Amino acid sequence: MMSIDIEWARAELASFLKLTELYSPPDPPGVVVFSSRLANRGGGREIVASAQVVEQILDRVLPRWRTEVPDDRNKSVNRWCQHREAVQRADAVLLREAEVRERLGDDAPQVSAAAMHRWVWDGARSLWRSGHFREAVTAAARKVNAETQNKVARRDVSETALFQSVFSKDAAKLGQPRLRLMADDGSDTFRSVHRGAMSFAEGCFAGIRNPNSHEDGLPELPEHEALEQLAAFSVLARWVDAAALDEP
Fold first, then answer.
1. What is the pTM of this model?
2. Quick one: pLDDT at residue 106?
3. Which domain holds residue 131?
4. Are residues 144 and 25 in the same domain?
5. What CA–CA distance (Å, rounded) separates 248 from 193?
6. What UniProt keywords apply to this chain's record, in alphabetical order (predicted)?
7. Among 67, 66, 15, which Cα is nearest to 41's?
8. Per-residue pLDDT tens for 65-82?
9. Are residues 121 and 189 in the same domain?
């Protein structure tokens, strides 16, 4: 489970369920109405405001809720039926997560896709929330590549060739600026840092991005594996974002 304030999230879900509870409104005084009409306990604006927060919780806890939870009763019964069932499922997940943490005392650090570098999460967000984890990683890789091209103002190279150039230990040339993770003091550390960054970038694109993009029929990535791959591109993105631009 990605990092989340379980107590707060469950309180928000409970509030939404209370607002969207269905009941039969009483007849006006002196009037008898024969109707099976049901209404929500809360007002429309209040429910919409709550749904805005609840949907973000659902996207974290049940990324595929929009497609996996049936919505057929939204029109025949009430527009919030799909949300209510998703909320009930998410609450069960959160309840069990809280129980596991309490019973096992698991205090291991948690990783959230939303906590990745902004380039990575901006690229992956929409696909990630629909459960397309492999495509989300590929989109994040494209975003990191594009932002790196923007930083060095180059469109003639991309991916492995791009990072081999920007992290090269050679001095910057006309049309070939470098990204410096530390000042060039002629030390072994300078050479090691930039050689490592170049190799790491090559591994990200050759070992993660290319297979995800070019191999047909691959099964969907498990979420935890996709998180690991996103984390690799997040490291690369932070290096690029923090690097100093060195131009001739």
1. 0.64
2. 55
3. 111-244
4. no
5. 21
6. Endonuclease, Hydrolase, Nuclease
7. 15
8. 999 999 999 998 999 999
9. yes
CA–CA gap between residue 112 and residue 168 (Å, rounded): 32
Which residue's entry shows tokens 């190799």? 199
Place of tokens 């995800």: 212
Q: 175 with 92, same domain?
A: no
- SS3 for the chain is CCCCCHHHHHHHHHHHHHHCCEECCCCCCCCCCCCCCCEECCCHHHHHHHHHHHHHHHHHHCCCHHHHCCCCHHHHCCCCHHHHHHHHHHHHHHHHHHHHHHHHCCCCCCCCHHHCCHHHHHHHHHHHHCCCHHHHHHHHHHHHHHHHHHHHCCCCCCHHHHHHHHCCCCCCECCECEEECCCCCCCHHHHHHHHHHHHHHHHHHHHHHHHHHHCCCCCCCCHHHHHHHHHHHHHHHHHHHHCEEECC
Is the model more confident about 2 or about 98?
98
